[in-house]
Amino acid sequence: MKNADAYYLYDEAVILENLQILRKTFPDFRFFYSAKTNPNRHILETLLANGCGIDAASAGEVRLAESFGVAKENISYSAPGKTDDDIRSSLPHCRLIADSVGELSRIDKIAGELGGGFEIGIRINPAFGMDTEAGGPSQFGIDYELLESLPKLQNAEITSIHIHIQSQNLGWETLARYYENVFSLAAELKTRGFAIRIINFGSGCGIVYDESCQTPLDMAALGTAVRELTSRYAGIADELIIEPGRYLVGNAGVFRTRIIDRKVSRGKTYLIASGGMNGFLRPAAANIAKLYGPVSRGAEPLISCEHPCRISVQNNSSETEEVTVTGNLCSGFDVFARDIVLPKAEVGDYLEFSNAGSYACTLSLREFASQPKVREFFQTVSGEVRE
Ligand SMILES: Cc1ncc(COP(=O)(O)O)c(C=O)c1O
Question: Does CATH number 1.10.10.10 belong to domain 52-243?
Fold first, then answer.
């Protein structure tokens, strides 16, 4: 990590701890890691070596999973607006999830060109919400009401359903109610003749971004509720899947950046660091959102809350000062934090930002202003650091 002005550091031990918690909470489920949240190869290797499949959000992520030797039944590909090329290139290599009625017909046609006999899934936009009784319109999935008039498929069979309506939930009761609704929907569809083998519940488990106002998801309580549901719906499907992303990796990463300059401008102290919006966009994005009003609800996956990470200084200073911390882009919005109190920092010190494991590196403006790209490091359980 020496000589890196700005870098991410991912901790394998934390990822494995998180996986262990999920296993205890969902003992009858498989986990398909949501690769879009952080496709770092060391993270993928760790999760694949520990029995996870891959939730791919593009044909590119299907290819990525394949390049790691993941078997097709362990790759689920769900995203709206797949092109014919996306469908053609990925259908033989994954479980493709149709996101609309039109896409279902295109998948069937292309499945015919490829010889037929494919098992596929449908993403459903259910008639329930996460916090509400009724479902709304959505760019994702096929409306529940349309399921009775799906086109008859000639070359593919629907054997799985996929539902994902909200990420970043911290309420176990909300999640338990959601899982119950999904089970109940699957049971209903089976009685209507759908040959469902796999139920994919999407993601939903959230993490704490701001300790001052959020409480962690109660996994023990959620686990009890989940076990009751799995025994009530025992035998409903061959496979139950959850697609966690940030729960596995969100708190397992930090972003560190070196202070390049410090200055006082009309009484305000600025720390200017490398790799702002082009390194770790999320803090700046939350600051920009605040300009339009209080951040009461996130705009996932970019904005989760008003204070999405803890900022600390990597030095032993006992003196504190109020500072505004910015990046080094030519943009007045390249601000990590305004008017916060930190230990007194000097040029050359590193700042550390927590919660930088998911939706962080790949979601940042890495091409902007031709600045050097931030680097990514991975610390194994044995303490080895790999790039
Ligand atoms: C279909 C689907 N699966 C899984 C995820 C991962 O969710 P999270 O990272 O919040 O756990 C998302 C996130 O938006 C998603 O859209």
Answer: no
